[in-house]
Amino acid sequence: MTSAKYPSIKAGTDSLKLNTGATVPILGLGTWRSPDEQVTKAVEVALKAGIRHLDCAFAYDNEVAVGKGIKNSNIPRDQLFVTTKIWGTFHRRVEEGIDISLQRLGLDYVDLLLIHWPVALRQKGDEKIPLREDGSRDLDDERTLNETWKEMEALVAKGKARAIGVSNVSKPFMEDLLKTAKIVPASNQIEAHPFLPEHDLVLYLQSKGITPAAYSPLGSGAAPVLEDETILKIAKAKGAEPAQVAIAWQAQRGVLVIPKSVTEHRIISNAKLISLTDQEMQEINELHKQPGKHIRTCMPPWGVDFKFDNYPPPGQKV
Ligand SMILES: NC(=O)c1ccc[n+]([C@@H]2O[C@H](COP(=O)([O-])OP(=O)(O)OC[C@H]3O[C@@H](n4cnc5c(N)ncnc54)[C@H](OP(=O)(O)O)[C@@H]3O)[C@@H](O)[C@H]2O)c1
Fold this sequence. Notes:
The protein is 33% helix and 12% strand. The chain is an alpha/beta fold. Helix 4 links the parallel strand 6 (112-115) and strand 7 (164-167). The longest helix has 13 residues, at 36-48. The chain is globular and about 55 Å long. NADP nicotinamide-adenine-dinucleotide phosphate binds next to helix 9. GO terms for molecular function: oxidoreductase activity, acting on the CH-OH group of donors, NAD or NADP as acceptor.
């Protein structure tokens, strides 16, 4: 399925099989920073446009509005693939975390439940990012990812999550998790786009049967990937939108891709999967080697060398 250097699957593939046997549509709708008053409509538009995969999270504070969009669509539950995530302050109470999300979304189960951050945060009331007195994030150092994973595994047996996975997990963290996991994670959701292709991590995950999912596939907020000359050139040659090029590149790498939009015409055009030639794939694979084109857009900057307990660096705000 993969070439030696870069991940690649058959062009035109629009769904993948998880290691549970479940089918997941490659393209999903992201919902981070989608305000309540817009996300219900965005979900309705996406579902009408044929998207059947939604990426949600407790931490996005909009699951009730997402749930409304699902309900308004009248699409049978078994035709949808819904992902949500357990927030850092819930690592010691994973079941409570999923119960809140299920209630907010108006669902009995999710298709995929991820651990949002691979580190636990100490619970302090309802604070989302509890801080220590020195302004750094208040890590729950005694809680390991492996322990939290064990609680995730129990939720599969209870039927609350059909599949479980992780997010923001680098290769060393994954290797450590696999030493004790009874259930191999179905997916690892990571920041990935042409400016941060994560080729090695993607190949590693695929070799373990873990489906990679790309978040911030357009480069997040200002969508900087869409202004890149190579992406623009390929889009122009194909008569496609730049976002369609960035999305198709992920799909043809065998990577789930969850662009966020609350803009009707963008949601509709993002939903149309185009095909790229091998040469176009290759150009995008190599694009990040250009000067100034290797960029991580989401914070904290998860990666092999990242030390969460020193974040943010002294003198910087979270
Ligand atoms: N697991 C994690 O830690 C994590 C972290 C970050 C993100 N995520 C997930 O991944 C999803 C996607 O990532 P993201 O929200 O960071 O960023 P993204 O999808 O890379 O980019 C979103 C931005 O691109 C714009 N956009 C969307 N389609 C466009 C198009 N066709 N043309 C031009 N602009 C377009 C959106 O604007 P409008 O909305 O105004 O149209 C928005 O400003 C999130 O929503 C979330 O579900 C997960």
